[in-house]
């Protein structure tokens, strides 16, 4: 049997991930059967199992990649903004982070959070992703405290958790309740941490 090139293998893996994201975003993890996945991605079960041992590993991979993308985009956004803290925070709801603007990805991330409550291995993946996001925000807020943009006694770790929780709430309200109010969140963020 001829060997499959690395490029072909990666393209097939991406085909599986894209199709699975579509299925999971529309129907959820548990309502999506393996047959639904196979029909969506256009592969046989044997071809699928060459890339993923099962649906759970596929879900963990999707979660990992989604959280890495959010972390990378947030890091880029923070690096590009040297504006005052209130302006930086106000920019977060409209930052170029696809999870904040892509309803399918937002629904998928919310399902990942819910699934993490029952899947210990997925919970570890989600926790690691949230820890990376918190660390990014904490580093930025520590720098801002040193510049005098936060009170000297402000705890950057606590503030980072609050900012992350607000972003999670924004994502949830947008995806689950169709509340498309980035301006409202931006206004709230702009006054949250005035020195």
TrEMBL record:
The keyword Signal does not apply. The keyword DNA-binding applies. Residues 33-52 bind DNA. Signal peptide: none annotated. One of its GO terms (molecular function) is DNA binding. Gene3D superfamilies: Tetracycline Repressor, domain 2 (1.10.357.10). It comes from the Bacteria. Keywords: DNA-binding, Repressor, Transcription, Transcription regulation. Residues 10-70 form the HTH tetR-type domain. This is DNA-binding transcriptional regulator YbjK. It comes from Streptacidiphilus jiangxiensis.
